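## retry 2 of 3
previous attempt timed out at serialization; input unchanged, resubmitting
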Amino acid sequence: MRFDIVTIFPGFFASIFENGILRRALAEGLVTVEVHDLRAFTHDRHRTVDDRPFGGGEGMVLKPEPLAEAFASLGIQPKAERMKSTGFSPYAEAATEPRALAPEGSSLQEPPFAPRPLVILLSAQGRPFTQALARELAATECVVLVCGRYEGVDERINQLYCNMELSIGDYVLSGGELAAAVVIDAIMRLVPGVLGNEASSEFESFGVADAEIANAEDGVPRSQHGAGGLLDYPHYTRPADFCGLRVPETLLNGDHSEIRRWRREQQLRKTLANRPDLLEGATLSKEDRKILDAIRGETE
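## retry succeeded, writing output
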C-alpha cells in the first residue's frame, strides 16, 4: 500500500514513521509513504501557497494552483477523469523528487502500476474517521492525503480532485499533518503482515463481530470476544495483585466460555458508560441486550 502526503511542512513527518510497527512496515516494503512539499510547486521567490479569502474574513486560504501542480506531478488527474479512465497509474514520473520516508537500506521499490488513487482532504468539515472506514481504506492500494492549513483549502480543489473530506474528531487543529499521521497509523496497522499477530486488529475497540472472526485452529473457542463495534474489554497482566487490587478471578480460572461472557459484559459496561452512542450501531445479541438491561437496572 502507498500513501502520498501533500503538505507545506514536510519536516513534520521526519520522525513520525521511525518507530514501532510503522517503521517495520516501511522497512519490509509492506507500505510506502512519500511526502511532497507543496511549496515546491510555487513559482514566486516567496514560495507563496496561500492568499486572502474572497468575500473577506479572517485567515488565509491555500491556493489551488500549487495543489493542482502537486497532483499533476504524481500523475493524478481530476477525479471525473480518474473515474472514467482505466489502467491509470498514479506513479507517473514526478516533476520534483518526492522524499521517501523509509529507513536507509530499505528494499522499498516504487510499484510499476497501481489503480486509481483515492485523494482525501483532511478537514474539520469532513466525515468522521472511524475504524470501519480505516478497514475500507486498508483495502485500497494508493491514498493521497492533502493537509489543509490556515482557514482551509480552496474549495475548487475539493470539487475537482478530492474523493472525500475526512476529519479525525470534532475539534480544530492547526493543520492536517497530525491528522495525516493518525490516519496512516490507523490504516497501516490493518494492512496484512504489518502486525505481528493478525488477530490483534480483530480483538480491539470498534472491531468486527464474533461471526467475522475464525475460531482457533484446534477448534477450541477463543477466550477473546469480538467487539462488534463496541469498546474493548479491560486487560490485565502480572502481578495478579497490585496495590491491593486483584485481577478478576474469572480471568485466572482457565474457563474460556466464562472468560468470554465476562469480557462481553465488560465491553457492554464500558461502552454504556463512555460511548453509549456506539450501542445503536453495534452487533448485539439477545443475551447482550439482557446484560445491558441488567446493567441499566443497577444504575437505576
